[in-house]
Description:
Blueprint: H1 2-36, H2 40-53, H3 57-79, H4 86-116, H5 123-156, E1 160-167, E2 172-180
Antiparallel strand pairs: 1-2
Amino acid sequence: MESILISSLAIGTASGAILVAGIFFAFSTFVMGALDRLLPEQGIAAVQSINVVVLNPWSFGAFFGTALGSIALCGLGFLNWGSPGSVYLVAGGLLYPIGCTLVTIVFNVPLTSELAAVEPGTGAGAELWSRHLSTWAAWNHVRTVVHRSSWPFARSRAPFRLEPTWTPESGRRQAAQVSLR
């Protein structure tokens, strides 16, 4: 039973990291580029709107739930130090909260807060917008890479895997089965 709970936590945490990485990947690869094509006052207004809408239970649940899951996996890794996969739990458990949550709180949120306080159509707004595009995006790239790097660590320790079964007599694969490692 304990291994199923650890597996569920590992898979849930890895899934959360994948989901959040997808959001950050979208911003890194095309959202910021699209915002950069807008006039500064339009870009500022769009980001200000995004930053209001993103504050919702679903976003917070994915972002902070994954951080909590990562911390729990890290703790389990330390408690089971020396057992197979414990290093992966600790590594993955540290990568997400430090490389994502901490980077977000220390770098991205202050930039976002600064942008939220500026008037979109002013010279100060245009200057801030230019700095925001490059600096915020750079830290977002860091978050994207760290997210993508953290979830395989969590998943690699899951003590079960789905295995398709194959029967020689039918020559076909059957439904996947859960097998303990």
